[in-house]
Amino acid sequence: MKMLLKKGAEASLYIEEWYGREVVIKKRLPKAYRIAELDRQIREYRTKHEPMIMHRAKEAGVPTPIIFLVEPEEATIVMEHVEGEQVKNVLDRLPREQKINICVRIGELIGKLHRAGIVHGDLTTSNLILTPQGRIVFVDFGLSEQTSELEPRGVDLHLMKRAFASTHYRYADECFKAVISGYMKVMGEEETEKVMRKIMEIEKRGRYVAER
Description:
Layout: E1 3-7, E2 11-18, E3 21-28, H1 36-59, E4 67-71, E5 76-80, E6 85-86, H2 87-90, H3 96-115, E7 118-119, E8 128-130, E9 136-138, E10 145-146, H4 150-167, H5 172-211
Antiparallel strand pairs: 1-2, 2-3, 3-5, 4-5, 6-8, 7-10, 8-9
Helix pairs in contact: 3-5, 4-5
């Protein structure tokens, strides 16, 4: 039986039995506000693009769900249902040492994505699954893109910083510092400093807009 897992702005996710295994089915639904043909092309492109980026992320050493089937015409992706909990739901109740270790690991994995020229586009603790084996699996690459530009990298980490501040505010500073320390292990000091300056620039722009 199909069960709604998540209803997003762009797509709905269902858990379903598929050839004897539990899977997640991601289906992009038509948007009435778009011209029908353009809407079809956008949904088809994104349905092909997302698994391709997930495959590249996996090649870069970042765990992502296994893709079983892609049907661009139906705007549907069938993928592994990853057992575990969203980091969003588990982080605050972990002992400090484990919390920091997980954040360092998250930073390392973000670094691997960025080093491979991938930005996630929606990096929050909701889109990270902590498995019972302690792996961190990145999900929902619907807004991802292939780029090595500094701005989207900065936006990626800025989103993560905001997620800590809003959802894990009691530990936000130390968690984000741990993420950056993991990121630096992979990306090096020079690249990390560039991204940190970009994050500061993004934050200043945000404050300027808010004050206008």
